Amino acid sequence: MTTNISNNDNVEELRKRVQELDEKNRKLKKAIDELSILNELALDIGSSADSEKIMRTIISRSIHSVGAEQGDVTLVDADEVDSAQTLVRSMVSSKGQSAVHLDQNLLGWMQINEKPLVINNPAQDDRFRNVHLEESFNSVLSVPMMVRSELIGILTLYNKKRGEEFTDQDKRLLSIIATQSAQVVENARLQEKEQALEKVKHELELAAKIQKRLLPKETPNIEGYGLCGKNITARSVGGDYYDFFPLEDNKWVICLGDVSGKGMPASLLMSNVQALLHGQIIHYSSPGQLLKNVNRQFFKNTEMEKFITFFLGILDAESNTFYYSSCGHEYPFLLHSDDSYIRLATGGIPLGVMENQEYPEETIEIQPGDKLVIFSDGIKDSTNKNGEMFGEERLEKLLLEQNSNTGEQLMENVFDASIEHNENTQPFDDMTMVVLSRNSKSEFCI
């Protein structure tokens, strides 16, 4: 009898040990499986620099490992004020059904709490009782992707297969996957951003070179006159443009324009105006008629909120007359040798504001010693650190002080003064100036 009891005890003890070994083997197998999953995932995503491909690999591996129907990665852009509006999603589904996306309320919860979220019964979950979730939501498992304690993304799986619930083991595995892959995703994103910035930089450099080619390549030689121009852009490319080129009978077109806005869009618009101007000048000898037609073409081909202030004149070097019209541009100064001056204000509204516009013109005589100074608003709008603008009054005073200098010296000194006032900070706006000078009587006698 005693022997039978002892044998039973031994059998029970042996059964317990077998169960313990089975449990240990099960856990060991599961750990090996998890390590295998993580190792294969690391190999797959470590060999790619494509963030989209990396995310799709992470999602497909997660779906397979946890046994879900769908999944996605939502990237959070920390540089944006409202990151919820600037998300990049990548979705992989194991079924041919419509895609499920992370609800904005769940997304907000994840961004605030930055910890795993499991919802196995949405209708009964007190955290989201008043939130209307998609009917296709049966269960959700969402985990944060953290890099240096910063949330860079959210990995989410939807609807465990066969109607099952997501388990703590699923949550643990998906958290490990998110932790292991977050840095790889971030590195790929940073590399792509760097490559994109390099591409933009290259394109801007190319655009800047093209834009410089649109400006006059050399100072023209006009008997009895001096003519010079200068442009400094606030960015790599700008929206200011100046030009001078010859017509027949010793006549010269002189113009300066300023596009609303800055950068590449402004530069492209100004290139468009230059093309229109050069294409139409052979048909119109009148500045007013030329600007009327350029305005009509520009209005038809651009967005309503875009416009250009423009000044255009034609110098007749034989008769020393200058006929011009302005499109809402800064009024040029015509400086006389006795330090008096007038402003050239005849014209109409900026190009591109209204389709059918007339541009009145005026003819003036250029006297010996006169200087015509045409400029963009970037000269007088130069602002120091205290918010004080260079201003038109300071510009007027400086022009009169520099009136005895050559046109080129005057122009350079104005630029230097405006830039110095700006205290060597980045110019807020493009700065452009053209100076037409008629030689004085004494110079004619030499």
Q: Report the total helices.
A: 10
Give the termini separation: 143 Å
Q: Give the CATH level 1 class of the largest domain.
A: Alpha Beta
User: Do you know the CATH architecture of the largest domain?
Assistant: 4-Layer Sandwich
Query: Whole-number average pLDDT?
Result: 82
Task: Report on this structure.
The chain folds into 2 domains: 27-190, GAF domain (Beta-Lactamase), CATH 3.30.450.40; 206-445, Phosphatase 2c, domain 1. The chain has 10 helices and 16 strands. By secondary structure, it is of the alpha+beta class. The strands form 3 sheets. Strands 7, 8, 9, 10, 13 and 14 form a 6-stranded mixed sheet that branches. The chain has a 5-stranded antiparallel sheet with strand order 2-1-5-4-3, with helices on both faces. A 5-stranded antiparallel sheet has the order 6-16-15-11-12. It has helices at 2-46, 51-66, 104-113, 168-214, 263-280, 287-301, 377-380, 392-401, 407-421, 441-445; strands spanning 68-75, 88-93, 117-119, 140-147, 150-160, 225-232, 240-246, 251-259, 308-316, 321-327, 333-335, 341-343, 347-348, 362-365, 371-375, 431-438.
